[in-house]
Amino acid sequence: MLPTVRTHPAVVTALAADLDAAGFTVDRVDALWGSEAAASLHRGSRVAALRALAAREPSALATLATLFVLGLPVPRSDAERAFPTAGLDGVLAAGLLRRDDDSDDAGVPDAGHERVRPTVDLRPYAFVDDLGAGSWWIVSDLGELALGTALGEEHVLGIGGASTTLSGLQVPVPVRRVLDLGTGCGIQALHARRFADEVVATDISQRALDIARFNAALNGVDGIDLRLGSLFEPVAGERFDRIVSNPPFVITPRRDGVPAYEYRDGGMVGDALVETVLRGLADHLEPGGTAQLLGNWEYRWGDDGLERVRSWFADTDLDVWVVEREREDPPAYAETWIRDGGTKPGTPESDALVDAWLDDFATRRVTGVGFGYVVVRRPTGGPARLRRFERVPEALGSNPAGLGATVARVLDAAAWLGVHDDAALASAHLRVAGDVTEERHYWPGNDDPTVITLVQGGGFGRRVDADTALAAFVGACDGELSVAAIVAAIAQITGVDGDALSADLLPRVRDLVLDGLLLAPTS
Fold first, then answer.
1. What residues contact residue 442 under an 8 Å CB cut-off, 6+ apart?
2. Eight-state DSSP code of residue 182
């Protein structure tokens, strides 16, 4: 039974003061043991970090890092010095530590004296968004390295790659209300609160809500309403300006002997959980409201995965943009998530789970599983203007603050294009985005390029093959001339028919506006 994390306001405030005074930041912790040890920790080994700590003078920072990052016990006297404001008894009462009389842990000093052991993972987290740089301390449950065993089914996950991907997808536009569906440790709710007056965060796990509440208090963030329940049940009848969710989308066999982790397994067959969430968005978005989510979808024999996702929106009036970032075959998918739960490959336990996964996939004739992003908007009026389902497996552009601004620009561009027919587009004054460059390749000795590519430096890092006419058009888009004027000038210079050139260029210009290589007027 995992200990309850308790949010005692006085203790939490004092704990934040102690963490701050110790310099418990990402940079300071990384410097404590160095980049090589940090990389080794990421690979699942604490040896290099412990050796680096042994060579340093004791400090509150080293104690905090040993406890909450390495997941190891420390002498009670060291812990008392690390919490001069909160007091060790206060931190014990909050459920972050417990007394430990076991003296057999190798590598821990003063093993024969009374010690305290962490019950949670607590580590610094740094980020950059459109409001600038920020940092928090985030509590979650101890990972496999600290536990020395597979994770429990009630495990509350900390910050990982999916978390940072979704936080970066959040549209950085101020709104009134945001729903964080399946909040976990609360990281998405914290990010959402930076751009919202109020955040409602739901989860099926009471422990997750307790930890999310603690994290909000520890970082001095208010305005987050935490509610217990499954999917949209806690917000029945309510609408939001934005919905964000990293739902428990992992496709797991529903049978005895297969662990079902609350943080990742939705309790439904196949990808039905993701389908249920996506179909429920329309009932909970305000007009003009958006949603940004992560998800998995199955490819079945004769059934394309992205087309299956498209069918889930067939009866809605929502704008939809789905980006598939990767696809795994059934064995690779099973092995990935079995290992994620802490079961080591090559063991009888792992082999039995792989068998169960492959049996489950076979019942639905699954040939692969796609993973990616889902962006949705409820139009303010009229029909949906964006239905885009694409695969973008290549590396993205440079996006220090995440893809949220790109998402907002694409949604705005789709709305603009939807109300501008070709005649209106021809009269518009477009500008080339500042991150667009051009690559040209030539045969030796030839003055004419054989390949021209427009390259987007940010966003999705789009690479668009262009002929000389399109390259010339983009190069002339500085906001001074209309689209029609630029096309006419190119037609005159090249000696081609202006109407034919316009018919050829305008559809490609629309694609460049949607992708953000060309920018539409803002007013």
1. 448, 449, 450
2. S
